[in-house]
Amino acid sequence: MNLLTYIVVQTINWLFRKRSPALLIFRTGAYFFPITLMGGVAFNVQYVTASQLISLDVAGSDVPALLVSIGFYFSILLMATGLAWQIVRSVIEHRQLAKQIVFAIEQRGLVNTSDSPLSEHVQKKYKGRNISNTVIDIRDSLANGTVSQPKLALKKFLNLEHSIEERRNSVAAEDFHIVYGGLVPVPFAFLSGYLLDDESHIEVLDWDRQLSSWKELDPISDDNEKFEKTIKHADSKESIVLAVSFSYPVDEKAIDLCFPKMPQIHLKLREKRFDNHWSSKKQSRLAYDLIEEVKNLMEEGYNDIHLVLASQNSVAFKFGQAYDRRNLPHITIYQYEKDNKTPYPWGVSITNLPHAEPSIRLTEFNDDLEQAV
After folding, report:
1. DSSP readout, 110-163?
2. If one looks up domain 100-216 in CATH, what number appears?
3. Do β-strands 43-48 and 53-58 pair in parallel, antiparallel, or remain unpaired?
């Protein structure tokens, strides 16, 4: 398709497919224009052979010439008015879009997404808007697929609030929109959601491993699957393990090993699959159920929760968003390292104390771990 053809096609699509009151007026004039041209047309056509005469005689319309002229100029007026109005609308819309900031937050760690950066997806979807992006890359803190320097990685995430504040302060609240997508260890995904809980306009994407691309959550569908709850009792009355099996089962033997003599609450989905998370409604609903469970534990006197979460990145982020930093107890979200001598070696610790930053909490070495080693 050459340039001229492309321009013509795009112009026709803009004039006759785009919906707006201005273009409705333009189209009304465009529909009446050819009718007025035909109003005063008269012609006679004859076809003569040796044996017959075929004649087509079309008489001019009985509509007075004055009315035809009025209709002609009125249709032109409609088209001109509609086109001018639409141009003004488009200019105003472009200026409004240019004021809006879409802030894309991409977090890289477990999978290399640099060939399909989140910013490219955002630019295609939000054309005309001011796109800003930041990439939190913690791959330099990984070694052989495990997080070897969690404290170094944590520092990069703690700068997130400052990055958002810088951009948000330059525009009105309604003109600031966040798009989040990441593939990082569960503790950091949860922390990111926790840090962004006060942001109202957040669009969450996740990485589709089959398509190797970013994918939006479905805002409508919900399979209504619920957590199944089991309890393992123990003597501790202050600390408790809350284990959530969402995408795959948590390692219960590893939990017993790392958190001995500690009671456990298990929340499990019956259908644990890597692709069971694409419903935004489902994530929000189960996040609410998780928080209700935490509130129940708090009422029972537990003030130190050890969260073991097996889930996709967007689920961990959504659960972190739901965690109330002011009213819920101290929580630590643990990283799972299957081949490590300590399968849950560290976690991101979040406290409700004022002005206290999240920190890395190392798993205490105990007799069970010593025997396992």
Report:
1. SS--TTS-HHHHHHHHSTTSEEEEEEEE-GGGEETTEES-HHHHHHHHHTHHHH
2. 3.40.50
3. antiparallel
Rounded-to-integer distance, Cα 333 and Cα 157, Å: 15
Q: What is the pLDDT of residues 120-162, one digit of tens each?
A: 999 888 887 888 899 999 998 888 778 889 999 999 999 888 8
Task: Give me the long-range contacts of 137-145 (CB less than 8 A, separation at least 24).
Answer: 137/107, 137/108, 137/109, 138/107, 138/108, 138/109, 138/184, 138/188, 139/108, 139/109, 139/112, 142/109, 145/110
- Whether pTM exceeds 0.90: no
Q: Low-confidence residues of the chain, pLDDT below 70? A: 1-3, 6-8, 10-17, 36-68, 94-98, 198-200, 365-373
As given in the structure block, the two tokens for residue 69 are 């002229």
**For residue 264, what pLDDT is reported?**
96
Query: What type of residue is 168?
Result: R
Query: What does the pLDDT read at residue 112?
Result: 73
Concatenate the DSSP letters of all residues of 204-234 into one string. Answer: EEEEETTTTEEEEPBSS-------EEEEE--
Domain boundaries, the chain: 3-97, 100-216, 228-372
| Distance (Å) of CA 371 to CA 27, 172, 341, 367 | 81, 58, 11, 6
